[in-house]
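Internal tracking record. Fields below are filled automatically when a chain is submitted to the structure queue. Please do not edit lines marked as system-generated. If the sequence contains nonstandard residues, flag them in the REMARKS field before resubmitting.
Queue: standard
Priority: normal
Entity type: single polypeptide chain
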Amino acid sequence: MPDLSPRRSPEIHVSRLQVTAGFAVIYLAWGSTYLAIAYAVRSLPPVLTTAARFIVAGALLCTWAWSRGAPRPTWREWRAASIAGSLLVVGGTATVCWAEQSVPSGLASLLVATVPVWIVLLEWLSPRGHRPQGLVAAGVALGLIGLAVLTAPVSGAGASPQAFWPATVLMAAAVLWAAGSLYSRSAPLPASATLGMGMQMMAGGALCIPVGLALGESAAIDAAHVPAIAWLSVAYLTVVGVLIAFTTYLWLLRVSTPSRVATHAFVNPVVAVALGWAVAGEALTTRMLVAAGLIIGAVVLITSGQRQPTIADAMHPTLPTEPS
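SYSTEM-GENERATED OUTPUT FOLLOWS
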């Protein structure tokens, strides 16, 4: 029998290389998901598809954690996982997939990129929050300028009055994702990181089902006529977007600061534009290159300006290991 006594839980050190690799994953993997989402939602219901891939991925993680001896979660832990899942999965993910039916992926990435701004503001407004420091404020401003420059060449591509509400939903999604990121960092989730991640995914995926049904998505499923590219996109989103990138994101929230982790929203649009150029043949202009430089500069400013905890603290935290 494994020894699950809390007083004897061993600790592991998270190295600089692990943290750097984690940021590389959320920067690159999530940047590529915009293109995959665009392919998937052309033929599949966005919210119910989100439900399926998060439930499957979450079940796999929970099964893995339980097989290694993680204790069964309490009702309090399930409640926390449901709150985090509703904010991150329903509010911050399914809504983006739904909106990309009407909003171009470039515009979607711009609106989602406001996440770091909302995280800084929500942290400031929290009971123990503090006013953003100079470099953080400057980084947010620089990032928004870079994103405005980046999306200017494609701002008219596919944009229409009908896209107003989807764009509004994307703005709300950014706020909900920011709130979920802050909540999951301090929520009473299981000590097993893997189990906590799986529970958030399963709860969020399950909560997507009534939303999808309310939107009438069940009548839109016609599996016989779904092209292969759509199924491949769903598989990619499940494995890379959820199992790899989403779990890495939740892990980073435990070992770094929310504002620093949220810098992925500045880099993801750069990756999305690069893939659009390489895969879809979209133009790569000087304006886009300038915007990329501004965005990367914003990431550096926010990372350098974040004071609590320090960079050294974030690079060398200690976490309880999984039961073995």
